[in-house]
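Journal club side-thread
Mid-discussion, someone asked how the predicted structure for our own chain would compare to the paper's figures. Pasting it here so we can look after the session.
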Amino acid sequence: MERIEDKVEQITELDTCSRNPRCARLRREDPDEAGVQVWVEARLGGRAYRFRGEGCDANYAEDDAQEHAAAYLGDDAVFGQRLIEAPAERVDAADLLGRVFLTPEAWDRCVAWSEEDGDRTGVLLQDRDGRLLDVLRALADAIRRAGPLNRTRPLPFDVACFLRDVVFDPDDDREPAYVALEASFARDGNGDHLFTVREPH
């Protein structure tokens, strides 16, 4: 079967952000905060492909990736796993070597954050980049404690974060929750580490 990675660079780039007013506004206001990359796996005729999309949040980026897939494979493609890639500069800041992907569920629970989330929950001074860095640093700490990466079992670890569905009253003590995550390891065709972070099954 053809490796998914073999098709990554052959896909014509589209720009959903330029067509979406909210994404365009966010990019003007804060270019560093605006970009999210989502990889969507698709299969057609026994062959597997991976398509990258970009957007101001994971939903728009996924739509972008699916547009790529539809343009390249047509309407008969079967979609599979979706993964959100952590920006390389955040991975470097956490002292991780390799590429880090998060499932949409882990991203939504531990990373995603908006001004509306802050207003609703009463938790201020939160942002997506800071929350992502908390996850990456927790992963890096777990790897250092666990030792070599040649493992077949997922590596469990916890991250402290405020949950988007927990609303605090003004007089409440605002303490983060500890969310259980796990990371699986693989290598790409160049031998570089690939980390996939998800919530335990």
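Post-session note: The first strand starts at residue 36 and ends at 44.
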